[in-house]
Structure formats: structure tokens, C-alpha cells
Amino acid sequence: MDKTKIAICYAILAAALYAISAPISKLLLAYIPSTMMAGLLYLGAGLGMYLLGKFRRDEKEQPITKKERPYTVAMVLLDIGAPVLLMIGLTRCSAANASLLNNFEIVATSLIALCIFRETISRRLWIAIFLVTASSILLSVEDMSSFSFTLGSVFVLLACICWGFENNCTRMMSEKDPAQIVVIKGFGSGIGAILLALITGERYFHAGYMALALLLGFVAYGMSIYFYIYAQRYLGAAKTSTYYAVSPFIGAGLSLLIFRELPSAVFLVALAVMAAGTYYATTSEK
Rounded to the nearest 5°, which phi and psi values hold at 176? Predict the structure, then answer.
């Protein structure tokens, strides 16, 4: 199997691992405050990857240098903001809606890759961007007559924009050691978000639920980011994000099963439009 096909497999694996985040986080948010939850997820990613590195380390990987410092700082700051925004959004909208809205990350990542980092976007990917954006609007609008947006959906979309910038910063470091990047992301963003939670008055010290949040962070964030970085190395930021688009559909399906939610007509229409957009994205010509 060539490196491109392996990278595609890594991107899809990363998507599947991340898909469990929204529905399980929604359950834990009943017990853990949103900003604290975001911090625990990233801290779990960093801690888990650090411990994993003690048993297996690839010496061929290049370490991060001073040249990547601006991207490292931006990556950590964006990774503090994005999950906090997502957790706030999850407290204000359904897990299925939030999962599907995560596909807007494709749009944000691709447009930022084009406008700032000069990656090429194909004609089919432009169609995908249009369809995903249209679906995101359908999922976000609370009242079509007054065209007002649900607050929860707006927070999820803002999280996607943050992750769009963060994906492109990570792309600039994709030749470096993925495990080191995850550790820096995890500890930097996790500790930053927990400090923010404490400053804003959030207090939570239930060992059992905190351990579950850390474990979820390792699997859904740590391992997912690890494989995502490997995929970016060979596919680029825009293309990797298109294969990652399967994640919201897995997450939405899990959410509907876990919370026994009956999807609305608007949700089903948005799902169809999003599926069409994902098809165009993942079959985009080179």
C-alpha cells in the first residue's frame, strides 16, 4: 500500500476516534462544567500520549524546533478556545446537531488553507464547501421566518473556525514528531483551559468522572490527533479535512442511539445535503 492510501486510512481512523467525543462529552457535561471538561479532554490527550511514548518511541521523527514556535503557540491557544466553545455549544444544542455541524471544520480548514497558506482547492471541493455550508445553516437556524440562529450552533461553528486555523498551524508542523505535537497540544491546551475554568469560578473534583474525561480525551483527541497529523503529512490540510468528514456522521449516529433522539425533518434534509457535500469533498480531483 502506498503512502497516500495509508494516509487516507489514518485520516478515516482519526475521524472514527474523534466521532465518539460529542455524544460521550454530552453525557459527562451533566456532571463536569464545560471549560473544565474541555481542559480535561486535552490533558488526557497529552498525558496518554506522553505515557505511550515511554513504551514506544520512533527516533526517526524530527523534534519541533524554534522555527515552529509561532505555529506551536497559535496551535495551543486555538486548542484552548475551540473545545471550550464546543463544550458550551453542546450544553445548548443536541449532540447529533453538534456532531453534524462539526463538518463545518472542512469549510474553515479549506478556506484558510487557500487564503493564507496558498493550498489549491479543486472545483469539486468548492461544491463540497457550498453544500456543507448550506447544511450548517439549516442545522443552525432556529426560526426560518425570522432567520435567527440557535446559540448552541453558533458556538459549535465558532469552534470549527478555531479548529480550521489550528489544523493549518498543525499542517505547518506535520513533518515533525506527531507524538510530541500531541503532548504539547494536550498539556498546553489542557492546563490552559483548566486554569481558565478555575479563574472563571468553575470547581469540580470528582475523581471518577474526571478519570473518564481524561480517558475520553486520550482516545478521542490524543489518538485522533496523532493519526490526523500523519495524514496531513502526505495529504495536506484541506484534503485531510475532507476524509475526516466521516466523523460527524458517525458522531450523529451514535448521538441518536445514545440519547434516543428522533431526528427532525430539517435534520434529515441537512443530513442529505451534508452527505452530498462529503461525497464531493472525498472524491475531489487531485
Answer: -90, 175
